[in-house]
Structures are given as structure tokens and as C-alpha cells.
From TrEMBL:
It comes from Nocardiopsis changdeensis. GO terms for molecular function: ATP binding. Residues 35-271 form the ABC transporter domain. Residues 14-27 have a biased composition (Polar residues). Its main location: membrane. This is ABC transporter ATP-binding protein. Keywords: ATP-binding, Cell membrane, Ion transport, Iron, Iron transport, Membrane, Nucleotide-binding, Transport. It comes from the Bacteria. It is a peripheral membrane protein. It is found in: Cell membrane. CDD domains: ABC_Iron-Siderophores_B12_Hemin (cd03214). Residues 1-32 are annotated as: Disordered. Residues 1-11 have a biased composition (Basic and acidic residues).
Length: 295
């Protein structure tokens, strides 16, 4: 696991939950928001999932979105990725309404890996990664040397160059997730949205994938947003944590500011002790049990 920077103090049990406007520690006050949600309401038919949500994704950071099942994490990510049109409110990409921006322009800037992606039978790793180059192509310019270099670079970054000709079906779960991330990288964007990239993976492969994500940020300066369920992995890999419940943001800020006993009780109905991670010095959540005050 990567060593996280020092200086993130732990808020003990008498801490107060940070407000939604909390700024990530170490982030300049004039930092630019790559993605912003303003008054966002999202619904499936008559069922409202996200209601009046505000959030900012700051340039050059790794943000983890946490919250209980059904709180709207993946739905919010779909809206941020232009995969879902809001019932009301606005999503801005680099200061522009994302739904008024041409699709190809968005695809050159923003890469999205949905939850549980699927691919046709028989597809090889290289075939899948090459699909990430579609936004860069036109009817008058098909496959080019630039496309070949982008695919080769993406395979190299994810450690899959030796498996380029292997069928996806023959890969382990961790390798398959790397292949999907490689496809998004081949798209050539510097803003990535990853919906539960560690789903169904054992702990070793979860760490493997998240190490890769962090390396992509550290070496390439990419802005990355992930939905994660594991609170301690979110604390370890994120610069910013956004905590949600019932379609709203409860708190947003550095892991030590957000992952407090009070917030965990409010968001998850969980009694927990927050201690210092012996590896990183950041927060580590130790569950005690279900809170009697919240279901």
C-alpha cells in the first residue's frame, strides 16, 4: 500500500462533523473545480435518488465518494459523467454546462468507467483498450499512429502489455479491472470517473487496482473520482472524501475531517472509533456495531 503524506491529524471522538463546505487540507483556496454539481436532482421515473446536491471535484485530486447502499453515489457519478440528465440543477465541466457541450468534446476530457462494465465474448485486451480511442476518430481519420501509441502507453501503464492478445475471459478479476481502466486511459483524458472499481475483487486485487489509480494521479496529475465502499481504503487513497446519505452530501473534505465517529453514525448508522492508521498516519475506522440511534 502506498505511503500517504503526513500531516493529516485525526479528529477524535469529540470531533464535530465537518460541514459540506470544508476545503480539502492542502488544497489552495483558488483551486479550480473541474466538475461541479449545483442543486442537482436526479430521478428514475418518479423515484428521486439525489435531491438538491452540491459538490465540487477539484483539479488534480483523488476524490472518493462514500455512503450507505442506495444513497445515490453511483447515480451522482453517472450525472457527473453525462450518462444521466438531471431533473433539475446543473453539472458543469470546466465551467460549462456538460449537457450543452458536444459529446466528442466531453469525451476528449472526461473518461468514465461504469459499474460492472461488459464486453462482447472473445474480445482481447488490446481490442478492448482500442475502443477507448473511438472519441479521437473521425470518418475521415480512422486508426492512426497516435492511436497505436495511446493504446500501447495505456497497456504499459496498467502492466498489461504482455497480455494484450489474451482474451478478457482468461484474465483474473484484478487483471480485468486493469484492462477496463486501460481502455479509459487510452481515451487520453485527464479526468476519470470510476464507479466501484474494486467491486468483487479480493483485498489483494483491490489494493492492486487502487495503487494503480493513485500512480495515475501521482505521475500524470489526473483528476480522479471513485465510488468506494471500503472506508479505510477511501481514507488511504483519497485527497478528498465526499460522504452521502439519502441523496445529499453530508460532508466533504480531507479524510481526517470527514471520517469522524459523528459522521459515521449519521451516514451509516454505525458506531465506530477512529484511530491513527499505523502506516499512513491518516484516519482508520474501527467498527464497534450498529448505532442504536440510527438504522
Amino acid at each position: 500500500m502506498p505511503f500517504r503524506p503526513e500531516g493529516r491529524g485525526i479528529l477524535r471522538e469529540n470531533s464535530v462533523t465537518a460541514p459540506q463546505t470544508t476545503r480539502t487540507e492542502g488544497t489552495p483556496s483558488d483551486a479550480r473545480a473541474r466538475l461541479s454539481a449545483r442543486g442537482l436532482t436526479l430521478a428514475y421515473d418518479d423515484r428521486v435518488i439525489v435531491d438538491g446536491l452540491d459538490a465540487d471535484i477539484i483539479e488534480g485530486t483523488v476524490t472518493c465518494v462514500i455512503g450507505p447502499n442506495g444513497c445515490g453515489k453511483s447515480t451522482m457519478l453517472r450525472a457527473l459523467g453525462r450518462l444521466m440528465r438531471p431533473r433539475s440543477g446543473l453539472v458543469e465541466l470546466d465551467g460549462r454546462d456538460i449537457h450543452r457541450t458536444p459529446t466528442r468534446e466531453v469525451a476528449r476530457v472526461l473518461g468514465v468507467l461504469p459499474q460492472q462494465p461488459t464486453a462482447p465474448d472473445g474480445l482481447t485486451v488490446a481490442d478492448l483498450v482500442a475502443r477507448g480511442r473511438h472519441p479521437a476518430q473521425r470518418w475521415y481519420r480512422q486508426w492512426s499512429g497516435d492511436d497505436h501509441e495511446a493504446v500501447a502507453r495505456a497497456l504499459e501503464l496498467t502492466g498489461l502489455a504482455d497480455l494484450a492478445d489474451s482474451p478478457l475471459s482468461e484474465l483474473s478479476g484484478g487483471q480485468r479491472q486493469r484492462a477496463w481502466i486501460s481502455m479509459v486511459l487510452a481515451q487520453g483524458t485527464d479526468l476519470l470517473l470510476l464507479d466501484e472499481p474494486t467491486t468483487f475483487l479480493d483485498l489483494v486485487h483491490q489494493v492492486d487496482v487502487l495503487d494503480l489509480v493513485r500512480e495515475l494521479h501521482d505521475e500524470g496529475g489526473r483528476t480522479i473520482v471513485m465510488v468506494l465502499h471500503d472506508l479505510n481504503l477511501a481514507a488511504r487513497y483519497a485527497d478528498t472524501v465526499i460522504a452521502m446519505r439519502d441523496g445529499r452530501v453530508l460532508a466533504s473534505g480531507g479524510p481526517a475531517d470527514v471520517l469522524t465517529p459523528e459522521l459515521l453514525r449519521e451516514a451509516f448508522g454505525l458506531d465506530a472509533v477512529v484511530v491513527e492508521d499505523p502506516v499512513t498516519g491518516g484516519p482508520m475506522v474501527v467498527p464497534v456495531g450498529r448505532s442504536k440511534g440510527r438504522g
